[in-house]
Amino acid sequence: MREYQKSVIVTKEEIATAVNGLAKQLNDKYKGKEVIAIGLLKGAFVFMADVIRQLDIDVQVEFLIVKSYKNGKTNGKPQIVLDLKKGITEKNIVIFEDIIDTGRTLAAVKEYLKYKGAKDVEIATLLTKPSKREVAVDIDYSLFTIPNEIVVGYGLDYNEYGRQFANIISLNDAGIEELKE
Ligand code: 5GP
Ligand code: MG
Fold this sequence. Notes:
Layout: E1 5-10, H1 12-29, E2 34-41, H2 45-52, E3 58-70, E4 73-82, E5 92-100, H3 104-115, E6 120-128, E7 141-145, E8 151-152, E9 168-171, H4 173-178
Bound molecules: guanosine-5'-monophosphate and magnesium ion.
């Protein structure tokens, strides 16, 4: 897998600093309130785990699986394949996402959570690729803006490879070809 690294896009130190900053903002904003953190699996699991361990507000954790990607390409129609375990009526929600690309996933998830009766839905994304945006999304917290490359690490995968890396790296052409499903 390491031979497929093109370059380091975000280092683990940069991630740690940004995660700290996000946790501070959430602690301030939701002081005295309760929040449900909803992680979009699988990509956001590392990111959300790091953030919630720095929260001193009341936080519950839920997960959603929304599928739309294969070989790094969207098929455009996000589908919910794992649903929430509890109701969210009148709850404050913070969605944790690994990367916002076309915006279709987040737009669909936000609409779904509002439909389920959430009071407030905020979006925290580790990465954003604005050059690929097709659907406008209001992003409340965005840690890093990256170029239009396929990246893995810190929870993000390419066909399930690369989630374990501490840094976020881009893949070279050999990797993209070799790891194709
Ligand atoms: P969107 O609906 O915004 O196009 O899709 C966002 C989803 O696409 C993310 O949750 C992520 O799973 C996937 N995605 C988009 N770009 C990348 C990328 O460069 N690397 C990885 N690992 N996933 C990506
Ligand atoms: Mg994802």
